[in-house]
Amino acid sequence: MSLPTAADLDARLRATLQPTVLEVIDESAAHAGHAGSNAEGYGTHFRVRIASPLFEGKPRVARHRLVYDALQLFIAQGLHAIAIETL
Prior knowledge:
- The chain has about 90 residues and is an alpha+beta fold.
- It has helices at about 5-15, 60-70, 70-75; strands spanning about 20-25, 45-50, 80-85.
- The relative contact order is 0.26.
């Protein structure tokens, strides 16, 4: 099972949340040596900035839950940390 890429997360979020703004950044290399990191330096720590019409009227926790739910497959593949900024 391979680790996810920023493009994988981007495609999944676009398909499930129809974002109007989306930026996915792989920050794995900056976390080398931290818990959940790997020797490859990618695929474990991501930052997501996202706006979606599906967030309308929902509190921040519910917005974050939608993002986590959309990315659950990748968490199972070894994605360790997701920093989420909903817009």
